[in-house]
Amino acid sequence: MITAASAQIAATGAFKANQACPAVQSIHNGTNAGDVKLEPGRSYPLIAKNKQAATHYLVAVEGASPRERWVEVGCGDVGGASAPTPAPSSSAGGDGVEATHVLAVSWEPAFCEEKGEKAECQRETEQSFEATHFSLHGLWPQPEGKYYCGVDRALKDADRRNHWGDLPEPDLSAATHDRLAAEMPGVLSGLERHEWIKHGTCFGADANTYFNREAELAEQLNASTARELFATKIGQSVSLADIRGAFDTAFGAGAGARVVVHCQGSGGQREISELIIYLAGEVNGSAPLANLIHAAAPPDEPNCPSGLVAETAR
Fold this sequence. Notes:
There is one protein chain. The chain is an alpha+beta fold. It has 2 domains: 71 residues, SH3 type barrels (Roll); 208 residues, Ribonuclease Rh, Chain A (Alpha-Beta Complex). The chain is built from 9 helices and 12 strands. Strands 1, 2, 3, 4, 5 and 6 form a 6-stranded antiparallel sheet that branches. A 4-stranded antiparallel sheet has the order 8-7-11-10. It has a two-stranded antiparallel ribbon with strand order 9-12. Helix 4 packs parallel to helix 6.
């Protein structure tokens, strides 16, 4: 979701590992030259975090090349007098309450520029649904770090190594699987296995309910004028203001403030890669997407100010 080129927030202190987690160069790509892992019980100098409500810390790993590596926040604990302070509750300012979930959707042509070897990218054409619609990434219970609920260590380790083929298939009906696959091209690469193990186990319902709900929310987004904005701007740049305005039109004034825009690349080549939509309320019920967006307080994290809407290369 976030690359090493994304905004960083400087931090100091020490990160003490409690697990042998991978220490990667890129959060988005998961690249790990030398297959570097943290040593449980060892402390590492803290350099930065990827955003205010951090999902990853940047630490210094002596002997690694490159030395600066990203690690998941759940891999250890932060200490030191000057360690980063926790993010303030978003309920402290603005309307709404602190988000209980986020809906993450990708712009698949941008994703496939970096992950062209993926099965879903090999299949993609200009006529594909995902060439002009948002692709479902996941529905993630909050706060950050609420992962792997009741999951044993072996499955956690397999997931963190991106060995999705070693994860069990979620118990889905044929109808749910087909509905999900229509919104989530990554099913071809086993993305639903990863999403269930890491996020779905914390949703508080069975796999059928979880995946039906996130597919339903993605369907509502893809039926909106927010999606139409992207479809009509393929090959062109779109600003954060444009995106927020489209969400306000689709889901009511203020909805756009609940959307975080991520980009990949740098300079004039930045492309919109993902939208993170903050939700609260009856997320595990039947409330429409518009209601869930407005129930959440606006997030406090950096946005990409503008980016290109990529077109499929096939």
